[in-house]
């Protein structure tokens, strides 16, 4: 079965600083990879997804992610964080008819 | 479009009671799924459906039943509630039957407490 690891439970970033959230996956074939964001008390919203092709994918709200097959990673990045980016971020991998989520990384943004 | 709707938003049950969490979508999506979210555990798949009349188990199906008699609705039944089922439940849908590869559209969630 597929699995996802998000090694950072919490990350604090200063407003205006750059951000990188880590995601490592395990899956036997070419994966479908996703990043979702969850604001407090809300459902999840898709930020971006990777299926094939260009390994750098652009998403909404200025986020991007890079797929690195050799490292089994799909890290999420943003060059300049805004206070409104404070939320919980989930990486997910698709395979064998189901979608598997990581445990999430909570992003805190300091002034 | 209302998207994915879930009722109720909040529910308190006593141990042993049964109830049904409702989920409906108006996007004519084939794939629907139920997740539970617990602190530090992320989202875990309970059951999913690739189309009307077809359901299958996810990672944590014990204590839950589902059915999919129409494309629009995918109710989740708790047969005999236990405190371990205290959680936030999310329903999601996606366009095609291979929905695990599609964008998931999530409902707002149901917060369930079992005493």
Task: Give me the secondary-structure topology.
The complex is a heterodimer of chains A (111) and B (115).
Chain A: E1 3-5, E2 10-14, E3 19-21, E4 24-26, E5 32-38, E6 44-50, E7 56-58, E8 64-68, E9 73-78, E10 87-95, E11 98-101, E12 105-110
Parallel strand pairs in A: 2-12
Antiparallel strand pairs in A: 1-4, 3-9, 5-6, 5-10, 7-8, 8-9, 10-11, 10-12
Chain B: E1 4-7, E2 10-13, E3 19-25, E4 31-38, E5 42-51, E6 54-57, E7 64-66, E8 76-78, E9 87-94, E10 105-106, E11 110-114
Parallel strand pairs in B: 2-11
Antiparallel strand pairs in B: 1-3, 3-8, 4-5, 4-9, 5-6, 7-8, 9-10, 9-11
Explain the overall architecture.
The complex is a heterodimer of chains A (111) and B (115). With 111 residues, chain A is mainly beta. Chain A contains no helices and 12 strands. In chain A, the strands form 3 sheets. In chain A, strands 2, 5, 6, 10, 11 and 12 form a 6-stranded mixed beta sheet that branches. A 4-stranded antiparallel beta sheet of chain A has the order 3-9-8-7, with no helix packed on it. In chain A, strand 5 and strand 6 form a beta hairpin. Chain A is globular. The mean pLDDT of chain A is 93. With 115 residues, chain B is mainly β. Chain B is built from no helices and 11 strands. In chain B, strands 2, 4, 5, 6, 9, 10 and 11 form a 7-stranded mixed beta sheet that branches. A 4-stranded antiparallel beta sheet of chain B has the order 1-3-8-7, with no helix packed on it. Chain B is globular and about 40 Å long. The termini of chain B are far apart. Classes of the chains: A mainly beta (111), B mainly beta (115). At the A-B interface, strand 5, strand 6, strand 10 and strand 11 of A face strand 5 of B.
